[in-house]
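Re: your question about Putative abortive phage resistance protein AbiGi, antitoxin

S., sorry for the slow reply, the queue was backed up all week. Below is exactly what I fed in.
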Amino acid sequence: MTDPRIRPDVSKFLVHLTRNSGGNSAEDNLINILNSKVIEARNHHCLFSPKLNNMRLSERLKKSFNTVCFTETPLDQIKKLAAEDFPRKIRLKPYGLVFWREDMLDYGANPAVYLNGYGSSLRNYLLSEFDSHFNDISSIKTLKCKQEFYNEIISYYSLINVMSERHDFSWEREWRHNGNFKFKYHDLVAIVADDPDNFLEKCVKVLNKRKMSYLKRTPIISAHWSYEDVVEEMAIKIWQKNA
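Result:
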């Protein structure tokens, strides 16, 4: 059987988009990520987030549910996720990092799981299962004592959401990586920036020469470009690398 990962209808890329936060713009946050080579997992985004916020769990255990989010949306459609009228609480911007989907599988990323909350009682069942695992748990240490696969249990629950009238982002084709995601520059397929030339100029002011030598060989694409424009920029940078 042909490896399904090479099918033309499956995206080869996963994209992490940044947003305005911490008093910084999405662009500045992206530059900071490039400088540190770490995407921090700052929040948990799963069905069980309200429970995690209200239960008496150690901060370390709560943070273990935090994930870094990616999208499998095609590169020429990223602009739709960053549109001003996009109906979501967290406002993403057209700045981000592109990784190979196959590499992200090796790094442990998983598709977010969106289950039917309209015509089934799965939501109630999952909340009950979560309670059975964590009601008498206060820390990772106590969870580890009771569950052999404690890390896998945390990862599993951190992936789950339920589709409902108030919350249905299944069409985002979201992937999640549990915990901070550390990367190297050679992991990058491309960088997404609203104005690639201006973005590169800003990077020069923050990043050292060694880091800039890598970034200048990395395609910087705009979320507003067409598919052909994206392919052209990538082809040019690949040709320059091999020249």
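Residues 7-45+58-112+170-242 form one domain. The CA atoms of residues 52 and 62 lie 6 Å apart.

Happy to talk it through on Thursday.
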